[in-house]
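Bumping my old thread because nobody answered last time. Still need a sequence for this structure:
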């Protein structure tokens, strides 16, 4: 728990003075008395490591900083139905907070904790129910003005401070993300080997989900995409209910979550195990764009450079195969390439799949990549049927995505174990056919 204590200490120091309120996520009812699988709030977990619902972290900064956890009371009757609960005493001992109380004591204690504090660090507008609670507590403090008690005058967004912490991964986080990416990479290889014409998309989804859970991941990191043939040209396709056809490509975008940390990998490969000539041309173009982008993902380069490099390779490739007409500069200027490549080349990755952190500074300059950043690199090519498109390219959708950790020397591809060269893909699939 020293990792989480260090994060709390860092936040307390950056606050200077005042009180921070960081609640976890609420449980969500799926239907009647059935809930969706519970997933904690990433900010709360980042600071506590505590996974139970109905919890909130209070941090008090100043001369005598301290952390207070409010959580569910120990209740053996509820544990029979819902499972183990720490309770305040065990939570305090296990998670290293200075004090712990039951969540039922929160309303009673908060006005006192907010009294005579200059600042309140809270994410106003993030959750309406918590906004109402905080407003009530502040009003209770203001009602004591005649007794000499003052309420915080400034409300600052605590998430902005935590974002700065979460953007640069610690060695512990790096190792968690290596493990998450390793599990997901092996799962992609399994799915590739199990693919054949006539199977359903959801059958292939079952293959990598099996590997996620078998290796200890708690859940998929996001709704998986298993898109055969023309479905791959829909960027967020997730019905996963069509039959796989001989001669089509299959695009799988899937990652797992391990103790909160996400992996995010995309691979595209032929259903029958052998690329056709048009498929191979476009695939190797996307792969070349991805490798070039990964090569410039290193300290000192700005965030957008991998996208710029990938786009440069893709545009030239579109011209070479006849998808775009004109010079590279003309195609970049008129934007005709967007018919085939309409998204950016990556995003931050961490506790959230699209993780926190600014991409530009307040002056509008791209963020400079630094050791500890983790990002995805995912160029693609999506060719829908159209009059201006050669028919042999119709319904080809390709994306290749890896998770990349920026290091002091350059970068580390966390998902490197997921097969992606044409030769390796065809060899892998030949073993499974």
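Sorry it took so long. Here it is:
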């Amino acid at each position: 728990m020293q990792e989480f204590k260090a994060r709390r200490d860092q936040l307390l120091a950056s606050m200077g003075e005042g009180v921070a309120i960081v609640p976890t996520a609420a449980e969500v009812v799926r239907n009647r008395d059935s809930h969706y699988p519970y997933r904690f709030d990433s900010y709360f977990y980042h600071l506590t490591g505590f996974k139970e619902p109905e919890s909130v972290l209070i941090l008090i900064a100043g001369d005598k900083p301290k952390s207070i956890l409010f959580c569910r009371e120990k209740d053996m009757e509820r544990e029979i139905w819902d499972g183990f609960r720490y309770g305040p005493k065990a939570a305090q001992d296990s998670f290293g907070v200075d004090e712990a109380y039951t969540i039922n004591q929160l309303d009673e204690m908060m006005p006192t904790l907010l009294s005579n504090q200059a600042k309140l660090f809270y994410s106003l507008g993030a959750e309406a129910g918590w906004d109402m609670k905080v407003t009530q507590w502040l009003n209770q403090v203001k009602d004591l003005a005649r007794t000499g008690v003052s309420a915080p005058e400034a409300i600052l967004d605590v998430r902005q401070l935590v974002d700065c912490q979460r953007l640069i991964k610690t060695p512990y986080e790096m190792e968690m993300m290596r493990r998450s990416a390793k599990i997901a990479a092996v799962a992609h290889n399994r799915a590739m080997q199990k693919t054949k014409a006539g199977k359903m998309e959801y059958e292939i989804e079952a293959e990598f989900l099996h590997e996620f859970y078998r290796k200890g991941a708690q859940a998929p990191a996001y709704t998986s995409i298993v898109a055969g043939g023309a479905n791959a040209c829909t960027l967020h396709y997730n019905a996963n209910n069509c039959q796989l056809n001989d001669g089509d490509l299959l695009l799988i975008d899937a990652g797992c979550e391990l103790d909160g940390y996400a992996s995010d990998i995309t691979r595209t490969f032929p259903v029958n195990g052998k690329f056709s000539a048009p498929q191979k041309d476009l695939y190797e173009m996307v792969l070349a764009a991805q490798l070039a982008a990964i090569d410039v993902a290193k300290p000192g380069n700005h965030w957008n450079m991998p996208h710029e490099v990938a786009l440069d390779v893709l545009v030239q490739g579109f011209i070479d195969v006849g998808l775009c007409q004109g010079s590279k500069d003309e195609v970049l200027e008129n934007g005709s390439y967007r018919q085939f490549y309409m998204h950016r080349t990556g995003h931050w990755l961490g506790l959230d799949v699209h993780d926190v952190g600014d991409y530009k500074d307040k002056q509008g300059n791209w963020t400079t990549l630094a050791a500890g950043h983790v990002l995805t690199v995912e160029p693609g090519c999506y060719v829908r049927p159209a009059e201006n498109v050669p028919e042999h390219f119709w319904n080809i959708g390709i994306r290749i995505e890896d998770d990349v950790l920026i290091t002091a020397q350059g970068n580390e591809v966390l998902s490197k174990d997921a097969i992606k060269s044409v030769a390796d893909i065809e060899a892998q699939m030949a073993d499974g056919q």
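The CA atoms of residues 80 and 117 lie 41 Å apart. Let me know if any region looks off to you.
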